[in-house]
Design brief:
- The protein is an alpha+beta fold and 176 residues long.
- The chain folds into two domains: 56 residues, no CATH class; 94 residues, Arc Repressor Mutant, subunit A, CATH 1.10.10.
- It contains five helices and five strands.
- It has a three-stranded antiparallel sheet, with helices on one face. Strands 4-5 form a two-stranded parallel ribbon.
- A hairpin with a 2-residue loop joins strand 1 and strand 2.
- Helix 3 packs across helix 4.
- The C terminus is likely disordered.
- This is Methylated-DNA--[protein]-cysteine S-methyltransferase.
- Keywords: DNA damage.
Length: 176
């Protein structure tokens, strides 16, 4: 049994190229996906939904074109769900800026950024495809250029073909 502090919050933890993904389920639906640093150990799925989510997350890591089909717990405000729906329409290998999405939704870039930061289902709702007008922007409510979450964002964008592949993802400090 994995007794690592924090792992009890998750119904499964799967290894990821950048660390791990924590999976939380509730009432047979996905409740949350969480980017976890590398020190988290894998945890076997505790229920059928966690098993399904774990399998699909791993498939995405193998194939950036994989499309998630998971029962999602209802989350977010009406505005957040509008932002998330718009983000889901961004094709793999492409990005949009906070400003582009804000203009489309007749809103403001900061509000779009806040909705991205409130995303309960990263990967499924690919907020990593949203960038600032002049660079990478923040990610998962962080804008620490050398922090863990922006390292994750760089890996995801490279995995999907939206960042150059000739620079190791660990060393990419800005969005070209």
């Amino acid at each position: 049994m994995n007794t690592q502090q924090g792992s009890e919050l998750f119904n499964a933890i799967v290894a990821a190229p950048f660390g791990a993904m924590g999976i939380r389920t509730e009432e047979g639906r996905l409740r949350e996906l969480v980017y976890l640093p590398p020190h988290y150990q894998e945890k076997a799925p505790q229920d059928a939904c966690a098993e399904q989510a774990a399998q699909q997350v791993l498939r995405y890591f193998d194939d950036a074109d994989f499309r998630f089909e998971l029962p999602l717990f209802e989350a977010g405000s009406d505005f957040q769900r509008r932002v998330w729906d718009t983000i889901c329409a961004i094709p793999r290998g492409s990005t949009r800026t906070y400003g582009q999405i804000a203009k489309l939704l007749e809103s403001h870039p900061r509000a779009v950024g806040q909705a991205c930061g409130a995303n309960w289902f990263p990967l499924v709702i690919p907020c990593h495809r949203v960038t600032a007008a002049g660079g990478l922007g923040g990610f998962a409510s962080s804008d620490d250029e050398h922090g863990f979450t922006l390292t994750v964002k760089r890996w995801l964008l490279r995995h999907e073909g939206a960042l150059p592949t000739d620079v190791p993802w660990q060393q990419q400090s800005i969005f070209p």
